[in-house]
Specification:
By secondary structure, the chain is of the alpha+beta class. It has one domain: Distorted Sandwich (Ganglioside M2 Activator Protein, Chain: A), CATH 2.70.220. Helices cover about 20% and strands about 45% of the residues. It is built from four helices and eight strands. The structure holds 2-acetamido-2-deoxy-beta-D-glucopyranose (4 copies). The site of one 2-acetamido-2-deoxy-beta-D-glucopyranose has 7 residues, from strand 4, strand 5 and strand 7. One 2-acetamido-2-deoxy-beta-D-glucopyranose binds next to strand 4, strand 5 and strand 7.
């Protein structure tokens, strides 16, 4: 797939995700290098049938962190989770310096930036967190509906600092 094609796919997938009924079903955070960073917490909370949220906090131990890449890929569950349509790597520091340069990532980032402390330019120090990110909010942001299969999905984020994969966050969702 060409780069432009991939970007279009991502846009369609992201648009649909926030446009349909989305529900978080689980979140799993794994530190791959506990001397570099580790999670203080990472959980899904169901307040009631309609209000669920995820929170996660990752403490950084070798700061300031000046070089970060994030890659994220979507998986859909068939028999086990299989790669599905999108797969993208972003230089986080370059992106944060000029978010408008990457509209697709910005669109995605906008769905959780205000629930996090990630919206600032590099470097990163202290801790990274996302607090009470709810699907209610994501659903609320929806403006366009595009056809996309219902089912169980997983988004995997790899957090790569100085070219070493340091942590993996897997967010499980159901689209209906
Ligand atoms: C679910 O909990 C939220 C937050 O406490 C509340 O605002 C909402 O009204 C509740 N919804 C239902 C259906 O109880
Ligand atoms: C994503 O793309 C990279 C580079 O093209 C590839 O190595 C990797 O296996 C892909 N991952 C998924 C989940 O498709
Ligand atoms: C993301 O990075 C990890 C670690 O370098 C790699 O194993 C994985 O294939 C990458 N995925 C994508 C989507 O590029
Ligand atoms: C990030 O912060 C800037 C400056 O406060 C703000 O203008 C922008 O809308 C924020 N971006 C997102 C995606 O929330």
């Amino acid at each position: 797939m060409s780069h432009a094609g991939g970007v279009l796919f991502l846009l369609i997938v992201v648009s649909y995700e926030i446009a349909s009924k989305v529900e978080f079903t689980n979140i799993v955070c794994t530190s791959l290098d506990k001397e570099f960073s580790d999670f203080e917490y990472c959980y899904l909370k169901s307040v009631n049938r309609t209000y669920k949220y995820v929170s996660a906090k990752c403490n950084l131990y070798q700061t300031p962190v000046k070089k970060v890449k994030v890659n994220f890929s979507l998986y859909k569950r068939f028999n086990g989770y299989r790669p599905f349509m999108y797969n993208i790597t972003v230089d986080a520091c370059r992106f944060l310096k000029n978010p408008k340069s990457n509209p697709v990532t910005l669109f995605f980032f906008s769905s959780f930036a205000s629930f996090s402390n990630l919206n600032h330019s590099c470097p990163f120090s202290g801790a990274l967190f996302v607090e009470k990110l709810s699907t209610e909010f994501i659903n609320h942001q929806a403006t366009k509906v595009l056809p996309f299969p219902e089912g169980d999905y997983m988004i995997e984020f790899n957090w790569i600092a100085y070219d070493i994969n340091r942590a993996v966050v897997k967010l499980y969702l159901t689209l209906s």
